[in-house]
């Protein structure tokens, strides 16, 4: 996709840039450049307040149809929004999962009643979502889900039992969309359901996972006879895989350009560090900085190709390489930052994991190549779905 920006688009760019400059100050000033990957544990309540400030300005859910409170922006203006948001150093979105994943999925696959029930809270920045996909035995292999859902005729509700893991910000979330097996005799991607579940209930326990960064934005989530209303399954029982794959398509949509602007901010910080320490005069480090710059440009151009996907989240083949590419690029950026820091990379500012931003970047990018599908799984997906190569042999 080749984007061309009209005078109206550039006027829109000025509008969002001005709004951010006027509002990302005062009580929200400390949020600038905070709350991104590896920093999601910081300022959760203030960032929830920022979500409501965005909603007041009409800057949540900008891609949604006007019928449901969105701005229904064109692709070009969505690109501008995400780029200017990241350029301004606006904080990581507490509402990202609802705004960019749960909401579009409900719009594409949900009933009108589900839209009326769940979309307003996301739009207003008052209700927050997490994602119940990965399990201890079903991380990259989502089709190996073991969490079970059975329909209880007496209560008229779904009853869920099982465990999810690596659930980002589950401890800060009001709702979770959960993949569970509705047919106990099914296997692989068949017999799954996609459930919309309230987190604040007796049958759900959230347990934080402490990482090597000393933070705990990830969680284990346990379902022990947790309940879900009969009307809160998206699609029919057995259609969960279709809905889940549609959601993954939304995950690789326009918001990826905002992710790349955040990457640009990190690269700029690395370059500034290199200049301040004289490391920019080292030929090997200069070459790696140049490669990082080139890699980020390639990432952007591939994202433009990805934007021609369908409204149901269907993925173009270009999208198959995106996770592998950005995860590897980001990991390499963390390693570059540590090599520029030299011996200082090994020194903490204080006790209790008082890491610098670049140290945290380095440690957190270890996980980039694992969550959301490991690099190894991503290569299998590219080979099998993109290139049509024979499937890898599975253990019998």
TrEMBL record:
One matching Pfam family: Acyl-CoA_dh_1
Molecular function terms from GO: flavin adenine dinucleotide binding; oxidoreductase activity, acting on the CH-CH group of donors
Annotated Acyl-CoA dehydrogenase/oxidase C-terminal domain residues: 238-386
Keyword Flavoprotein set for record: yes
Matches recorded under InterPro entries: Acyl-CoA_Oxase/DH_mid-dom (IPR006091), Acyl-CoA_Oxase/DH_mid-dom_sf (IPR046373), AcylCo_DH-like_C (IPR036250), AcylCo_DH/oxidase_C (IPR009075), AcylCoA_DH/ox_N (IPR013786), AcylCoA_DH/ox_N_sf (IPR037069), AcylCoA_DH/oxidase_NM_dom_sf (IPR009100), Mycobact_Acyl-CoA_DH (IPR052161)
Record domain Acyl-CoA oxidase/dehydrogenase middle: where: 130-225
Keywords: FAD, Flavoprotein, Oxidoreductase
Cofactor: FAD
The UniProt record lists the keyword Nucleotide-binding: no
GO annotation, cellular component aspect: plasma membrane
SUPFAM superfamilies with a match to the protein in the record: Acyl-CoA dehydrogenase C-terminal domain-like (SSF47203), Acyl-CoA dehydrogenase NM domain-like (SSF56645)
Residues in coiled coil: none
Residue ranges occupied by any Acyl-CoA dehydrogenase/oxidase N-terminal domain in the UniProt entry: 6-125
Membership in a protein family: Belongs to the acyl-CoA dehydrogenase family.
Protein name from the UniProt record: Acyl-CoA dehydrogenase family protein
Organism of derivation: Spongiibacter pelagi
Upper taxonomic lineage: Bacteria, Pseudomonadati, Pseudomonadota, Gammaproteobacteria, Cellvibrionales
